[in-house]
């Protein structure tokens, strides 16, 4: 299967999960990651708002806030095409919808966090394989935005892909720009490379 075929197949799969399965997955992911991140204090953590059958993040966002972490969300860069910015997201932050119909914070430059100052960055993904290869929605946003950090000796942020178990495939055909992940969390497991 090529990248487009895998994308189509896995997007269908995750969109066909029932509400109950989605809810259970979201709850389990929350418990998994709260346990995994328990040594962090007042961390800056980038997440995303759920779209297209992706693993739910609302519960995790609420828990992280309760634990005094700061939550950031991606905002599509207003003029650097294909890049993301990460903006602070609080309970009542003004929101707007981007061109894909995904909620994102209304751009406020004073609340943007440079990537190297984030402690943890969670990426959405469509499919992953046993080697940590990641396939996204096809915009190249995360690959492009993180490319600069991948080239240098990279300490921060820790990048963690989030996915349902059903998004694991035998093999993701890779491209030169793809950034393999060192950690993918599902509701059930943590895959580390
Ligand atoms: N929840 C979430 N937020 C995210 C991402 C994501 O994958 N998930 N992104 C990760 O990069 C960025 C947005 N990238 C996206 C790229 C394509 C489509 C999408 O639905 N594409 C349609 C075609 C839409 C069109 O061109 O008008 C499709 O493939 O059906 C959505 C998001 C930033 N925010
Ligand atoms: N580092 C980069 N520099 C320039 N272009 C890039 C880079 N990374 C990806 N692209 C471009 O973005 C397009 C989409 O890439 P790809 O199919 O890998 O996206 P994706 O990983 O599925 O999406 P996303 O990262 O947004 O979840 C490709 O055509 C590629 O040319």
UniProtKB/TrEMBL annotation:
Query: Which GO-annotated molecular functions does the record name?
Result: 5-formyltetrahydrofolate cyclo-ligase activity; ATP binding; metal ion binding
Known EC number: 6.3.3.2
Q: Which Gene3D superfamilies match?
A: NagB/RpiA/CoA transferase-like (3.40.50.10420)
Q: Does the keyword Amino-acid biosynthesis apply?
A: no
Positions contributing to substrate binding: 49, 54
List, separated by semicolons, the cofactors it needs. Mg(2+)
- Record SUPFAM superfamilies: NagB/RpiA/CoA transferase-like
Q: Which reaction(s) does the protein catalyse, per the Swiss-Prot or TrEMBL entry?
A: (6S)-5-formyl-5,6,7,8-tetrahydrofolate + ATP = (6R)-5,10-methenyltetrahydrofolate + ADP + phosphate
Membrane-traversing stretches: none
Family indicated by similarity: Belongs to the 5-formyltetrahydrofolate cyclo-ligase family.
Q: What is this protein called?
A: 5-formyltetrahydrofolate cyclo-ligase
């Amino acid at each position: 299967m090529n990248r487009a075929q895998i994308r189509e197949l896995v997007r269908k799969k995750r969109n066909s999960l029932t509400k109950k399965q989605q809810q259970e997955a979201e709850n389990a992911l929350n418990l998994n990651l709260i346990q995994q991140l328990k040594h962090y204090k007042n961390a800056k953590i980038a997440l995303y708002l759920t779209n297209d059958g992706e693993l739910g993040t609302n519960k995790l966002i609420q828990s992280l806030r309760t634990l005094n972490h700061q939550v950031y969300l991606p905002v599509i860069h207003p003029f650097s095409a294909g890049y993301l910015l990460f903006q602070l997201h609080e309970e009542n932050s003004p929101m707007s919808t981007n061109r894909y119909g995904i909620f994102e914070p209304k751009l406020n430059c004073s609340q943007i966090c440079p990537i190297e100052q984030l402690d943890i960055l969670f990426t959405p993904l469509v499919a992953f394989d046993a080697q940590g290869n990641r396939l996204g929605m096809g915009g190249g946003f995360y690959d492009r935005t993180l490319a600069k950090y991948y080239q240098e000796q990279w300490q921060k942020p820790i990048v963690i892909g989030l996915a349902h178990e059903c998004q694991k495939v035998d093999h993701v055909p890779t491209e030169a720009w793809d950034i393999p992940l060192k950690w993918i969390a599902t509701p059930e497991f943590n895959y580390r490379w």
